[in-house]
Write a structure and sequence with these properties.
Blueprint (H helix, E strand, L loop, with lengths): L28 E8 L7 H14 L4 E5 L7 H5 L16 E3 L2 E4 L15 H13 L6 E7 L6 H9 L4 E6 L3 H16 L4 E12 L6 E3 L5 H8 L8 E3 L1 H8 L4 H4 L4 H30 L3 H10 L4
Parallel strand pairs: 1-5, 1-6, 2-4, 2-5, 6-7, 7-9
Antiparallel strand pairs: 3-4, 7-8
Bound molecules: adenosine-5'-triphosphate and magnesium ion.
Length: about 300
């Protein structure tokens, strides 16, 4: 078993949630967006990195947290140094690259070291990534999740107030079936799902610009209709996306004129609108809390009252 990571190995009890709904905000962070999937390898990290960089380019103060503790990708994709920086209190300091402050297990462990922690330790380390890190004040914190509906997803949903999630899938039926599990988990726990993103849904010829479908289409849109969620802009397969990702150079900044980057920028606009809508709704909900006029208004709307 590898030795636990200095400073991230939980040494003290995690503070208990003190808000009425059991959720404890992350200091200085306005909105938190989850990038999720059912199946692995469908492009979550690629999409999380590009959304974060595109939001930062729009002027949003943006952070990116790699919640994939067992298979972190963000340190490499963001081109950060891969070493832990700490402030005087021992908190980790996220490094800013491409306008985004990011933190990943890749900054805390050597690339070849496996993380072999069991459930409770993982949950505590994960919460430390949210709460015991010197995040600057942020408009948005994008969280790159591991695949599936396990401990990490549940720990976040039970402890951290989240604005919403986007669920990434590829067009194949097996991937969409797993995406449905992720969508259902968010719905069961009352989290807004901003929409479904179909990644690698087509190939666009770089010479003539002709679009070729790679798989039969229709499975992901069917899921979106069934679960009453939006189909967001899909992203075509672009071999340079992988090359840029491996070299810490996100596509939206490195090749903004490519078809895939244009789709990622459009997707970012959609996500940004959803985040802003959710923020306004939250402000209204907070105003209404304990406001007798608002309570009367809602009571009068209920049939039979
Ligand atoms: N649109 C795309 N075009 C070409 N390659 C892509 C595209 N999206 C992702 N990739 C490549 O596919 C591979 C998997 O992508 P990524 O790591 O983002 O998936 P993931 O869902 O985060 O995987 P995991 O579940 O393991 O965390 C990477 O090599 C990435 O560069
Ligand atoms: Mg990933």
């Amino acid at each position: 078993m590898n030795s636990p990571v200095p400073n991230l190995t939980p040494q003290k009890p995690v503070p208990q949630p003190d808000s009425p709904d059991g959720l404890q905000p992350v200091k200085g962070v306005k909105s938190i967006l989850l990038v999720a999937s059912g199946k692995g390898g469908v492009g979550k990290s690629t999409i999380a990195v590009n959304i974060a960089c595109a939001l930062a380019a729009k002027g949003k103060r943006t952070g990116l947290l790699d919640a994939d503790l067992y298979g972190p990708s963000i340190q490499r994709m963001m081109g950060t140094r891969g070493e832990l920086m700490q402030d005087e209190t021992g908190n980790a300091i996220p490094e800013q690259t491409h306008g985004v402050w990011s933190l990943s297990m890749g900054n805390l462990t050597p690339p070849e070291s496996p993380i072999t922690w069991k459930g409770s330790l993982v949950a505590q380390a994960l919460l430390q990534l949210f709460r015991e890190v010197s995040w600057p004040d942020l408009d948005v914190l994008v969280v790159d999740l591991p695949p599936g509906t396990g401990d990490i997803q549940l720990t976040i949903l039970e402890q951290i107030p989240i604005s919403g999630a986007v669920v990434v899938t590829t067009p194949q039926e097996l991937a969409v079936a797993d995406a449905e599990r992720a969508v259902n988990m968010f719905h069961d726990l009352g989290l807004p799902v901003f929409g479904l993103v179909e990644n690698m849904n087509a190939y666009i010829c770089p010479c003539c610009g002709e679009e070729q479908a790679l798989y039969p289409s229709g499975t992901a849109p069917r899921l979106a209709r069934k679960r009453h969620i939006s189909m967001l802009t899909g992203i075509p397969l672009d071999p340079s996306a992988q090359e840029f990702a491996d070299n810490g150079a996100p596509l939206v900044l490195s090749a903004p004129e490519s078809a895939a980057a244009k789709c990622l920028l459009k997707l970012t606009d959609e996500v940004n609108e959803a985040l802003e809508r959710e923020e306004s709704a939250q402000v209204l909900r907070e105003k209404d809390l304990g406001n007798p006029d608002a309570e009367e208004f809602w009571d009068n709307l209920l049939p039979g009252d």
